[in-house]
Amino acid sequence: MHRIDLIVIGGSAGALEVLLELMPQLPAELLAPIAIVLHQKPTQPSLVPQLLARACSRAVREPEDKEPLARGTVYVAPPNYHMLIERGGTIALSVDEPVHFSRPSIDVLFESAADALGRGVVGLVLSGSNPDGAEGLHRIAAAGGVALVQAPATAAHAVMPEAAARRVGALAHAQAHALAPREVAPFLSRLAGQEPLPSPLT
To answer: Which domain holds residue 129?
Structure first.
């Protein structure tokens, strides 16, 4: 059994489709907040919160700066803002420089979550065509959290999950579990419960 305080998810091209498949499958008893960064056009309002809200029964919204994390809630980084997790469990928004040409950046979210919540973080890197998220997932694994990537063979763009898996694999004590989208919800159920977990696939 592993305590899950926060699930952080990042992706780019091809990731929204995975989220729309994944979100309805998450077990109702899994109440940890979920923070999501998707690379989006910075000058257009995002439809992602509305799309995800239709796909699941959880509250989904773009957070306000300094908003406390709430159980059972999904937070989607607003366009053109980095989303960070602060010690004490609050969300911060920033307009610092883009990372990997992206604001919001997956690395910024993942690294801040690892620093704030340590081994209570589960990180998942989905489809995308650049390496944003690799350093952040490495930080989560190094802090004792759980590192997951979308199985590259199932990703529309495999660069992002492959880069993240390689970076985590550089740690002596950690590997990233590579999961097809349909495998993520059962994996999280086992992680939070008593069933034995499979070995990492990468």
So the answer is: 6-192
